[in-house]
Specification:
This protein is an alpha+beta fold. Helices cover about 35% and strands about 15% of the residues.
Length: about 210
């Protein structure tokens, strides 16, 4: 009986360890500030400090800023995603909007129509684990973070704006030189034009009969 009980305990313990490993791998999340920094093409650096390891984002001008403060729009807004897309950066205090970070405040981009969208949501970033080089363009990968999986013009949530004869579906109007500018005619105008054509045709037919 003791041997059987011991074997069962060993089996259950092994099963529990495997389950914990699986649970951890499934729900492992990446550091949002690191993902954001790298998604913009900047270098993320970890440095040991008196208060533990801290993450920094190295900007194009060589400046090192706190990665979290950069993500939350507290510093270097001119290098953030919103500014790069021509939007205004705004830091708001809203637990619902900032829920994915579990913080009280975060950065949002103010769009042309006045709508405010949380910056990483607008970038379509995900903080779940993924692998660059698996031939699948999945979150949080994009052209900047993994061009191997996400070539230019991919539907990856990032507007690369590169002239390569591919209209990037992630680019807004006039953001990609490969996207042809199309004039959208309001429905009411279309109806009026069609009506004028029909009236013109009817007049032409009646005049011919006369």
């Amino acid at each position: 009986m003791d041997k059987i009980l011991r074997n069962r305990l060993v089996f259950l313990t092994s099963l529990f360890i495997v389950f914990c490993m699986f649970f951890n791998s499934v729900f492992a999340l990446l550091n949002p500030s690191a993902v954001y920094c790298k998604a913009l093409g900047y270098e993320y650096i970890s440095k040991p400090t008196e208060n533990g390891v801290r993450g920094y984002c190295k900007l194009p001008n060589g400046q090192l800023v706190s990665a979290w403060k950069f993500l939350q729009g507290e510093v270097a807004q001119e290098f953030g995603y919103c500014a790069k897309q021509g939007y205004k950066t705004k830091t708001i205090y809203n637990k619902d909007v900032c829920l994915r970070f579990r913080t009280d405040f975060c950065a949002v981009c103010v769009l042309e129509n006045g709508k405010e969208v949380e910056v990483t949501e607008l970038m379509n970033l995900s903080f779940e684990e993924t692998w660059c080089g698996d031939n699948a363009c999945s979150d949080p990968e994009n052209y900047l973070t993994c061009p191997e999986d996400c070539p230019s013009g991919s539907d990856d949530g990032y507007c690369d704006g590169i002239k390569d004869n591919k209209c990037d579906p992630d680019c807004e109007k006039n953001k990609d030189p490969d996207c042809k500018n199309t004039i959208e005619i309001p429905i009411i105008v279309q109806i009026i034009i069609i009506g004028i054509i029909i009236i013109g045709v009817l007049i032409f037919v009646f005049l011919r009969k006369d």
